[in-house]
Amino acid sequence: MEQQDRSYKDKKVITIGTVSELTGLTLRQIRYYEERKLIAPYRNERGTRKYSFNDIEILMDIADKREDGVQTTEILKEMRLKEKKRESEAAVKKKMLQGQLNAQFRYGRGKI
Questions:
Q1: Which keywords appear in this protein's UniProt record, sorted alphabetically (predicted)?
Q2: Residue 12, SS3?
Q3: Three-state secondary structure call for residue 51
Q4: pLDDT digits (tens, 9 = 90+) for 20-71
Q5: What is the model's pTM?
Q6: Is the dihedral of CA 38, 43, 49, 51 positive or negative?
Q7: Is 99 exposed, middle or buried (0-12, 13-18, 19+ CB in 10 A)?
Q8: pLDDT tens, 94-104?
Q9: Which helix or strand (DSSP H or E) is residue 14 part of?
Q10: CATH number of this structure's domain 3-70
Q11: Is 78:36 a contact under the CB 8 Å cutoff?
């Protein structure tokens, strides 16, 4: 997907320092969540991390859960389950749309 095709919330343009200021998390915490695979910033050719507004929302959610005592392994499990659910829902929608297109094509074809 090209950069201009994505929502502004998905564009990875925010530096780690700004993310720290916006979230109240330390640089170390942000790096730790990256190490734990909870967040995946873009890295430019010089290795500078760049985050999106969606990444910031994820980090805020992680921080809230950590304050409630939830371990990072549990957060990761939950994130993976949500992703699987989204993928499954997308697959079902795609099948439904394909079925509708097939039905319409066959219906229209029989009338010609």
A1: DNA-binding, Repressor, Transcription, Transcription regulation
A2: coil
A3: strand
A4: 999 999 999 999 999 999 999 999 999 999 999 999 999 999 999 999 999 9
A5: 0.72
A6: negative
A7: exposed
A8: 888 888 888 87
A9: strand 14-15
A10: 1.10.1660.10
A11: no
